[in-house]
Amino acid sequence: MKRYHHSLVTKMFSVKAEKTLRLILLAIFAAAVIGMVVPKDGSLLPHMRSVQQLWIIGHILVFFSGCFLLYWFFPWLAKWPLYEQLLLILSATLLISIAIEGIQAFIPGRFASLKDIAANLAGSMAAISLKNLRRRRTLPLHIATACVLVFFFWPMLRSLTDEAIAYYQFPLLAGFQTPFEETRFRGDPGRLEITDQRAYYGNRSLRVNLGTETYSGFSLAYMPGNWQGYSYLKVAFYNPQPREVTITNRIHDKAHGKSGKMLYEDRFNRRFTLQPEKWTMLEISLADVKTAPQNRKMGMTSINNIGFFVTREPEPLTLYIDAIRLE
C-alpha cells in the first residue's frame, strides 16, 4: 500500500512538473515572439559579429522550442506520417514568420528579413527531426537538417574564433596571417580578398578593388576598441598603379555611430597620398584622433570603425593593405 501511495505521489508530482515546464516554455516562446516585433535599439548590442549573429541563432531556438511545445500539447501529432508533420508544421512556421516579418517592416529599428524566415523554418525542422529520430527511413531529413544548422551556426563559430584571435593579436588590428581576418572588414561583396600576391610582412595582405563611384571604400569594423595608452595607428598600403592615389581615412567611436547623424565634423578625417608601385606606411597620431570631433573628445576606449575611401576615381583600381597596428 505504501509503495502504491509513493508511486501515485511521484506520478502526480511528475505530471505537475511537466505542466509547469510547459507553461514556462510557453511563456518564454511568447516573450521571444513579442520581442521580435517590438522596436529595437541596435546601439545596446555589443559591437561584435558573434553577438549580432546570435540573433539568427535565437530565431532557430525560439521556433525549435515552439515546435516542441506543439508536440507537447498535441501528442497525437507525433504519430502522423512524417510528410504530414513536415507539411503542417513548416507551413504554420512559414505563415507565422511572414506575419512577424510583415509587422517588423513597420516598426522602428526593425526590417523584414528572408534570412530570419529561413532561420525560423530551420528551428522547426530541427525539432521535427529530433522528434522523429527513432523512426525508420528518416535519414534524409536528419542529413538535411544537419546541413541547414551548419549553414546557420558556422558564421557565428567563425566569428567567435576570429574575435579570440583578434584580442590575442592586439595591438595588431589586422595582419592577414590567420584565417577569417577578412570578416573584420566591411565592403562591397567581392571587393575584399586576402591574397599572397603582396605582403608588407609575412606572406599575405588584403587586396581591395575600388570603383569609380563618388565614394568607394571599405572599413575595419570589428576589432578591439580600447586604444587608450597608444600613440599611433600605422597602416601599410601598396599602390600598384603607375600614378599617385589619394585616399581618405576616417575614424570614429561608438558615440559617433549611436548619434545616427554621422557628421563629418564629429570624427577624424585625413587624406593621404599613396606613392606609385611601392608600399606607403601611413602614421596617424592618436592625439589628433582624440581631438578631431569639434564639440567633444573622441572616446579612445570605444573606437569602432577605421574607414578608407577614394573619391571619383577615373577608373577602377586595386590597392593592398597590411600591418594595421597600434603603437
How is this structure best described in words?
With 327 residues, the protein is an alpha+beta fold. It folds into 2 domains: 2-162, no CATH class; 173-326, Jelly Rolls (Sandwich), CATH 2.60.120. Helix content is 43%, strand content 22%. The protein contains 7 helices and 11 strands. The chain has helices at 2-35, 49-73, 82-104, 114-131, 139-169, 254-259, 286-290, and strands at 172-174, 185-187, 192-195, 205-210, 215-220, 232-239, 245-253, 268-274, 278-285, 303-311, 317-326. Strands 1, 3, 4, 6, 9 and 11 form a 6-stranded antiparallel sheet that branches. Helix 3 packs antiparallel against helix 4. The protein is elongated, with a radius of gyration of 26 Å. It starts with a helix and ends with a strand.
Note the gap between the termini.
Answer: 80 Å
The multimeric state of the shown protein is single chain
Number of E-type strands = 11
Any idea what the radius of gyration is? 26 Å
Tell me the domain tally. 2
Q: Uncertain runs with pLDDT below 50, 5 residues or more?
A: 8-13, 41-45
Shape: elongated
Strand content is 15-25%
Largest sheet: 6 strands, antiparallel
What order do the SSEs take from the amino end to the carboxyl end, as H and E? HHHHHEEEEEEEHEEHEE
Helix content: 40-55%
Rounded mean pLDDT score: 83
Count every helix, treating DSSP H or I runs of 4 or more residues as helices.
Answer: 7
Provide the structure class.
alpha+beta
